Amino acid sequence: MEIRVLGCSGGIGGAARRTTAFCVDTDILIDCGTGVGDLPFEALVGLDHVFLTHAHLDHIALLPMLIDSTMSERTHPLMVYGLPETLDVLRRHIFNWAIWPDFTRLPSAEAPALRLVPVVHGQTLDLDGRRIQVLPARHSVPAAGYYLQCGDAGFAFTGDTTVCSSLLAALNALPNLRYLVVETAFPEAMRARAEASSHLHPEALGHFLSALSGSPDVYVTHLKPNCEGAACAEIVALDCTPPPRFLQPGQIFRLAVGKGRDRETRESLASVDAGRA
Ligand SMILES: [Zn+2]
Ligand SMILES: [Zn+2]
Known about the structure:
With 277 residues, the chain is an alpha/beta fold. It has 9 helices and 14 strands. It has a single domain (2-276), classed as 4-Layer Sandwich (Metallo-beta-lactamase, Chain A), CATH 3.60.15. Helices cover 28% and strands 24% of the residues. The longest helix has 18 residues, at 259-276. The two termini are 27 Å apart. Bound molecules: zinc ion (2 copies). One zinc ion binds next to loops.
């Protein structure tokens, strides 16, 4: 299983900032932020599944245009998974014929281009041996994270969340957590804003990471564009071992079935990070 970072910023501005999206192999997206727009058209057509963490615009921004652009090329529907509340927002506020056509009824209600599939926290789906578990999260709207497992290695993405005891319990129950991508949006100077919007800030991130029972490689994502410098400095200063790294656009994680191959991936990532530092 290969997981490629298409977008990992909390906003836009310049070529390096795209909002949240991960491409898993060639057919799965985790979130559908602006990073999806960098994929070639043929790659967009090859996407069959989209797992949404929540309904906020930075995570769904390109879903309407993804289905519109590729509908005529599709031989089967695009499956969009999310919490029932997330899918309800899509139905009422996006695919409502006012903002965008209802692609769950196009080209026909019997054979639509888009299907909305509800999931619940704790549920695990198996897509050709790639297991995707829905993790709990605590945000200003109903939200989820996802844990991707292939063989004996796993990758967890928190989505947008503040400190969440049920998420920590779920992460600590995972036997094979190799990589953890965790959000942080604002620096300490904007702590009130972070708390009001149910995002993490560096001090809360430190508490969150210190409560982990395992020692996955941790990557921070979702920093807001005007906060990157201050938040990064505060995160680097956290007393965490190993220290968190910062997720990069284009970064690739490979989960292999054999332990040896996974170890090679970890070493190559470490060298990539060392080169950037
Ligand atoms: Zn959000
Ligand atoms: Zn967000």
